[in-house]
Amino acid sequence: MTQPSKILVVDDERGARMALEVPLRMSGYDVTAATCGREAIAMGQGKRFDVVLTDIYMPDITGLEVVREFRRFSPDTKIIAVTAQGSLEIAMQAVEEGAFDFIAKPFNIDEVLSIVSRAAQHATTAEAVSPDPSHDFSASGLIGHSPQMVRAYKLTAHAARTNATVLIEGESGTGKELIARAIHNNSARANRPFTAVNCSAMTETLLESELFGYIKGSFTGAATDRAGLFESTEGGTIFLDELSGTTQSFQASLLRVLQEKEVRRIGSREARKIDVRVIGATNVNLEEMANRNEFRADLFYRLSVLTINLPPLRQRGADDVALLAHHFLKKYERQHGEQIRIGEDAVDLLARYSWPGNVRELENTIEHAAAVCADRLITINDLPQRIVERAAPPSAVIAAPSVSLIDDRPSLAELERRYVQLILSENDGNKSRAAELLGIDRRTIYRYLDAGIAGVPPAIE
Q1: Would the pLDDT of 409 be above 80?
Q2: CB–CB of 63/82 below 8 Å?
Q3: Which domain holds residue 337?
Q4: Which terminal CB of the chain, N or C, has fewer other CB atoms within 10 Å?
């Protein structure tokens, strides 16, 4: 029989360790736990692990140091970084140090099991990733640890390590240019130019002359030869925003640039080779436009080698709104040299607003409130009236249901019983399905039921 994959769980908090240990063990893995980074490194030097799940923030040795050490002495081991402080910088560092994936707390256990399964399958075949200590991971301006943003951080981190064309999708104000700059700043092109172009702000003729350049006499006003932005961005990254508003003629010219890696100045027959990475962005769905023949399908496929979707702020949850509000307050403080606080009532109201202008609108709102507030404290009265009037009433906000397995610090046996109960409940009492998901025999389910699990729906055989 095949030996079960060996998993090491590293976390200085007992409850967090058990929340991972129990479901992993019940899924058939050989699980070992370490209470700190130093202990994990010592264990890894004496025993080979297929997968390591390590918390990032620990008091003695951080999870990033654990990743770095395992990459050194056990390069085939897959490391999954776990943290309650999901951010682009942490995702970037984890990936750069060689982590296989990145999980933010509170995590979805099904997602964790899926990632561990994938990591275990590749543990002996995937190539090790060498760390690159030369990168400087400065603040990106991207704030939030909602699941959607964590996915965006991970894709951004992977994009920075490649030279692939990237398409960033998201509503206006969600931070598409910040993602593009983060990819550039953490890539091998970081020391070369980054050029941002708003395609919707220019006519087709002006856009082509700006991007591709022109030669003297090619049109009225072309008094000299001029290099375009593609040429002047040589070796760097060019960010093309609002591509959905461009014409099919321009799209054909851009497709040629991407395919041939060359540009031809307006009025010239000479093609010039270029080395420029292209990152595109759109606030509408380009695939749907391509299906309606409103956007060139061949250009869409060429642009979307790697697609990053940025969620609208209204879908990111109250925690991200609060984090962003405090972030913008700190930014205001640095600019104006005065400390401003914000009341909980104001933060609650901000979380209930729909934010059609997304993060950009929130930043402007905080700047407005900081400028007009009294006694350096932002209250509801300092927020723009339209936001106060349009925010949903507190009674309309319904908290998402959650299941806690460890709030009361139960015993390991009790935690196992609770986890089985959770899986049964999620599957309407279907024991066969629950046993399959848990990786245990159905008779084991009955043993847990006999042990006194309450509240389980009637069995579906």
Answers
A1: no
A2: yes
A3: 313-391
A4: N
